[in-house]
Specification:
Elements (H helix, E strand, L loop, with lengths): L2 H39 L4 H5 L9 H20 L10 H5 L23 H21 L2 H34 L16 H4 L7 E4 L2 E5 L15 E5 L2 E4 L5 H9 L11 H10 L7 E4 L2 E6 L2 E4 L11 H10 L7 H9 L11 E7 L25 E5 L15 E3 L8 E2 L3 E3 L2
Parallel strand pairs: 8-11
Antiparallel strand pairs: 1-4, 2-3, 4-12, 5-6, 6-7, 8-9, 9-10
Length: 419
């Protein structure tokens, strides 16, 4: 055999080994994410998985089916010749907001879909899992590399719904007068402030031009692109999250009764919704308690405050003589290791509207509806919460919700300009 032939054979073996490693890596990632969804749903009964407690929330069964439909719709149907869908009706039932993908059931009425059953959705998930794994295992190397970006966005999409499974079932269980726990052993993380950290106070971010957005280290959604520069004035940002103790002081000082602290829409919401405290707080015999995934328990004063809206966070900041950081101030501080508990407890409100970055381009096709069309009437949160799946957080992540929303694990930290 010539040296050229030997070299070609060695190259082929090397490419085959690389492709095999790639398959192994992505099959493991796919199985891990899909299993985590089922792990989060496991403590719930079929009755729990059907309920929809408000239009913004969705039933657990729907989350399990929708994330499965996502892989079927965007990965399997276009890329597997002769693929047979599990059930033709599911595209209508479990499409969320992808208008380009066809008609869909009304979001506020998802809780009325009692059938198909949870067992049938389990079979649906198993059917799609088998088809995806077979595709990843048999696709030619060049084809595999074209498919992996779809798999990757599908896995990150499912991780978003894993967080929603917990936030949505928490809201549903909170409507039950007997206050049932999702997991009686669950406890709210206290964070560094609760551990009497010596890192308290404010830390300074030097003013100037800073690079923000996608840093090229891994997967990002399209709304984190393109990387660009932002001018940031000299600012100080709190190392620690605002705690329940601080929020109780705000409440005792008439925070919810003082209109001058609130944005106009915020004050209207306070009045019409009769807000007196964060969501899930209940006053029992003169003492405040919080309903959580672990059930109803007394407020821990050292734990970070949770389940507050942008309106509430903004009012608290004004009461404290501070303001909320912009999303770019938060990102620069976090990247430089200046923030305690940036991830893993609560998403943190910023005072940045959810808008496109300069030069933003949505993905092509139906997946282009993923983020861009929501860039209106929303505020940005940064970081990650106790419900955010492992490996899903990053410095550039942009979460977003309307300013009245507070059923997510939402909190805040403060900032002030260094004049």
């Amino acid at each position: 055999m010539s040296k050229t032939a030997v070299h070609s054979a060695e190259t082929a073996v090397s490419l085959d080994a690389a492709a095999a490693k790639l398959r192994e890596t992505w099959l493991a990632a796919f199985r891990k994410v899909r299993a985590e969804t089922e792990r989060r749903a496991a403590p719930l009964s079929p009755e729990d998985q059907i309920v929809q407690s408000m239009p913004d929330a969705s039933p657990t069964k729907w989350h399990r089916a929708h994330t499965t439909w996502f892989f079927e719709q965007f990965l399997l149907v276009p890329n597997v010749p002769g693929y047979k869908v599990f059930d033709e009706r599911f595209a209508y039932l479990y499409n969320s907001y992808y208008v380009s993908a066809g008609p869909r059931h009304d979001r506020p009425r998802r809780g009325l879909i009692t059938r198909p059953s949870c067992d049938e959705i389990a079979r649906y998930r198993a059917y799609i899992d088998e088809a995806v794994e077979r595709l990843l295992a048999t696709a030619e190397p060049n084809e595999l590399r074209k498919l992996l970006p779809i798999v990757e966005i599908g896995l990150n999409h499912e991780q978003q719904h894993q967080e929603l499974i917990l936030t949505d079932i928490l809201h549903a269980l909170a409507q039950n007068p007997i206050a049932p726990a999702y997991d009686k052993s669950w406890k709210m993380p206290r964070g560094e402030r609760g551990q009497e950290s010596k890192r308290g106070g404010f830390t300074k971010i030097p003013g100037g031009i800073h690079t923000v957005g996608d840093d090229g280290s891994g997967f990002v959604f399209d709304n984190e692109r393109p990387t660009h520069q932002e001018l940031i004035p000299p600012v100080k940002i709190s190392r620690a999250l605002v705690t329940n103790k601080e929020w109780l002081e705000f409440m005792r000082d008439g925070g919810y009764e003082t209109p001058t602290l609130w944005l106009s829409d915020g004050w209207y919401t306070v009045q019409t919704e009769a807000w007196k405290a964060p969501l899930y707080w209940r006053e029992i015999d003169g003492e405040w308690h919080q309903f959580s995934l672990g059930g109803l328990k007394p407020i821990d004063p050292d734990a970070p405050v949770c389940h507050v809206s942008y309106f509430e966070a903004d009012a608290f900041a004004r009461w404290a003589g501070k303001h909320l950081p912009t999303e770019f101030e938060w990102e620069v501080a976090a990247r430089n290791g200046l923030l305690a508990d940036a991830f893993g407890i609560v998403w943190q409100w910023t005072r940045s509207a959810y808008l496109a970055y300069p030069g933003y381009r949505a993905l092509e096709g139906a997946l282009g509806e993923y983020n861009g069309k929501f860039m209106i009437n929303q505020m940005v949160l940064r970081g990650g919460s106790l419900a955010t799946p492992e490996g899903h957080s990053r410095f550039s992540y942009r979460n977003f919700f309307p300013p009245h929303s507070r059923w997510q694990f939402m909190g805040l930290r403060l900032a002030e300009y260094d004049n």
